Amino acid sequence: MDHFLYRDGRLHAEDVPLAEIAAEVGTPFYVYSTATLTRHFRLFDEALDGMEHLVCYAMKAASNQAIIKTLAELGAGMDVVSGGEYTRAKAAGVPGDRIVFSGVGKTRDEMRMALEGGIRQFNVESEAEMAALDEVAQGLGLRAPITVRVNPDVDAKTHAKIATGKSENKFGIPISRARDVYALAAGMPGLEVVGIDVHIGSQITELEPYRLAYEKVAELTEALREDGHDIHRLDLGGGLGIPYERANSAPPLPVEYGQLIKETLGHLGCEIEIEPGRLVAGNAGLLVSRVIYVKAGEGRDFLILDAAMNDLIRPAMYDAWHDIVPLAEPAAGIDQRAYDIVGPVCESGDTFAKARMMPPLIEGDLVAFRSAGAYGAVMSSEYNTRPLVPEVLVHEHQFAVIRARPTFDEMIKRDTIPEWL
Ligand SMILES: *Cc1c(COP(=O)(O)O)cnc(C)c1O
Predict the structure, then answer these.
(1) Radius of gyration of the chain from Cα atoms?
(2) How far apart are the CA of 210 and the centre of ligand 1, in A?
(3) How is domain 103-274 classified at the CATH fold level?
(4) Catalytic member of 296, 346, 362, 417
(5) Domain residue extents for the chain
């Protein structure tokens, strides 16, 4: 459920007609609903009721300061994957003890930054990283709290580019080697083992892969405790999918996911962390765009939009589907027609949808890509010297630009011309 609904024939974000934002901000732009972000965070938080837990929003999904602050004020922790994200989380007021640091390639500089600024835990992914963290922490006279990310070798049944829990993926340590790696960690004076981490992928639309992974984590918890490790925290990753194609998908609900966690891991008495990104932000955001031209093609027409692959890369990169709807509510029973929906960038990959059934549209009409709040704005670029797409946050009847569209001057001034030219 989200807060983007037609009212009086116009698509709204909460109480604001989107066409009004378009008139003020120009297109294309991303828009987020505070009420939807809040609702999704609370669904996860409530799903873990009765267990000690922290929901750490995976901020790579959408990392605008205003979004992070909205979630942090609800009590969210943050899952960060770079020094930049760590700095963003701190800048939005998230305390270090609510930040977990994930990722296969943390640099020593990033480790130092997080240790000095405060960190809940590092999710370590290799022996090499472990040795580096031990050295950095000892250099600072500190002990770094760690979990080891284990790779449970389960098939998350998702797109190959976002599956992370199979043994052939670059992530984590094979669960079969975990006991040896924990023994190694226990011998490093700069490290303090606090738990286990697992994250099997993204846009996961069934619970079974989670069940398989979490059963393996439960077994491992008991084995590691027998080996004398103090395992009291389980970070279970993110990855729960969202219904991109509303007409025919129904991924599991956070409450069902929470129930599964209780069933598979509840008996261990561990503090639980989860790291949802997509399910918090995905359906809380739209990309709004305008039809520049309708071009007659052979067999069907093209809708040429002012948004392009540089603004929303998911269709080009993951063959992703986004529902696309007009801002003006189509009359009931209107005849639909098939369009290829494309952007202006000079690449055939700049195609959002092929043969998509839509109500008839004309030049100047506004459309919205649904479910664009996660991995949308954060993956945008200025390819073709198209200005970075702005972001807007709605709260009830108010809206604010939370990242402005840069001017061409601002964009060009970031380059510098060397003296010899
Ligand atoms: C990307 C990622 C997440 C979030 O995944 P979603 O599918 O957005 O929920 C969580 N944890 C880690 C380690 C990640 O890399």
Answers:
(1) 23
(2) 14
(3) TIM Barrel (3.20.20)
(4) 346
(5) 4-31+282-412, 103-274
Residue-wise pLDDT tens for the chain (421 aa)?
789 999 999 999 999 999 999 999 999 999 999 999 999 999 999 999 999 999 999 999 999 999 999 999 999 999 999 999 999 999 999 999 999 999 999 999 999 999 999 999 999 999 999 999 999 999 999 999 999 999 999 988 888 777 787 777 888 999 999 999 999 999 999 999 999 999 999 999 999 999 999 999 999 999 999 999 999 999 999 999 999 998 888 899 999 999 999 999 999 999 999 999 999 999 999 999 999 999 998 888 999 999 999 999 999 999 999 999 999 999 999 999 999 999 999 998 999 999 999 999 999 999 999 999 999 999 999 999 999 999 999 999 999 999 999 999 999 999 999 999 9
**Ligand 1 centroid to residue 107 C-alpha, Å:** 20
- C-alpha 6 – ligand 1 centre gap (Å): 31
Asked if the domains 4-31+282-412 and 103-274 are classified in one and the same CATH topology, the answer is no
Judge: domain 4-31+282-412, CATH 2.40.37.10.
yes
**Ligand 1 center from residue 58 Cα (angstroms):** 6
Tokens of 300: 């069907």
pTM, two decimal places = 0.97
> How many angstroms separate the Cα of 28 from the Cα of each of 13, 105, 388?
15, 34, 10
* Choice from 40, 82, 102 to test ligand 1 binding pocket (greatest atom count within 8 A of CB): 102
Nearest ligand 1 atom to the CA of 278 is: 8
Concerning whether 346 is annotated as a catalytic residue, the answer is yes
Residue 163 tokens read as 């599956």
Atom of ligand 1 at shortest range from CA of 282: 8
What residues are in contact with ligand 1 under a 6 Å CB criterion?
A: 58, 60-61, 79, 102, 199, 202, 237-239, 275-279, 374
Task: Give 411-415's long-range contacts (Cβ < 8 A, gap of 24+).
Answer: 411/382, 411/385, 411/387
Distance 4 CA to ligand 1 centre (A): 25
Which amino acid would we find at residue 335?
A: D
Atom in ligand 1 nearest the alpha carbon of residue 277: 8
Ligand 1 atom nearest the C-alpha of 279 is 9
